[in-house]
Specification:
By secondary structure, the chain is α/β, with parallel strands linked by helices. It has a single domain (about 5-125), classed as Response regulator (Rossmann fold). It is built from five helices and five strands. It has a five-stranded parallel sheet with strand order 2-1-3-4-5, sandwiched between helices. The longest helix has 21 residues, at about 110-130. The radius of gyration is 15 Å and the shape is globular. The two termini are about 25 Å apart. About 30% of the residues are buried.
Length: about 140
Amino acid sequence: MCNNPIVSIIDDDESVRVATSSLVRSLGWKARLYASAEQFMASGNLGDVTCIISDVQMPGISGIDMYRQLVGRGVLTPIIFISAFASEKTRRLAFDAGAVCMLSKPVDVTDVTRCLESVRTHASRASAAQPPAGAR
């Protein structure tokens, strides 16, 4: 299990950020909210989150372009994309960028739960495979 499960939620729509945050917290995760990709990128909190939930289409840097920049910096945090306009092309771009899930707005509680459980399971397996600090 994740020791410190934090989700960064990035969406230019405040009501979506707040609703997603409430859902994430009800599932036992902590949430940090950002109004833009630029705000998240400048936050200094890139490496200490377990998962990112990001809108695809936002003013300025899109969610997909933001994630490409993160990957380019070596930040491989799992990402769940959400979009009100989830066309097949958008879905393909999201998965090609490395998305764990691509959800349509309004997001369904069951879908978010399933995606976060997948992230949690993967993080638990990865941490179990790591040797304890100081072990050789």
